[in-house]
Specification:
mainly beta, 120 residues, 10 strands, two-stranded antiparallel sheet, 9% helix, single chain
């Protein structure tokens, strides 16, 4: 368990700023003091995955608006899924769009990708 007190970074609602995505950001007002974890309990977070129907909006929100470093944009054809990776300190935020994207601009070219959902 981590003990400390938290402060809202954005005291006003930021839903409009984040294109309608319910968003709140907290930060500590003092260094955190961690209690001794129980054996076998989680002690950190290094990877977080979020599904999105709109990868371009995710890039705008997490990259441009929140300032997370946009590290990688990759489509896995075998899963027909687009993966976007952002970095913030030691955390990797992975945003995925199952079913792949229909079109994407790369180096001035439009690349068409299949949009069929995977057969499960």
């Amino acid at each position: 368990m981590v003990r400390g007190s938290w402060v809202l970074v954005f005291p006003e609602p930021v839903d409009d700023f984040m294109a309608g995505i319910k968003t709140f950001v907290l930060q500590t007002d003092a260094p955190l003091v961690a209690a001794h974890p129980s054996p076998g309990s989680a002690s950190g977070l290094d990877h977080l995955v979020i599904n999105t129907p709109n990868p371009e909006r995710a890039v705008a929100n997490y990259g441009a608006r929140l300032g997370l470093r946009f590290a990688l944009d990759r489509t896995a054809e075998q899963w027909k899924t687009r993966f976007l990776f952002f970095r913030l300190g030691g955390l990797t935020l992975e945003v995925i769009k199952p079913g792949a994207c229909q079109t994407r601009v790369r180096s001035g070219e439009i690349v068409s990708l299949p949009s069929e959902p995977p057969n499960m």
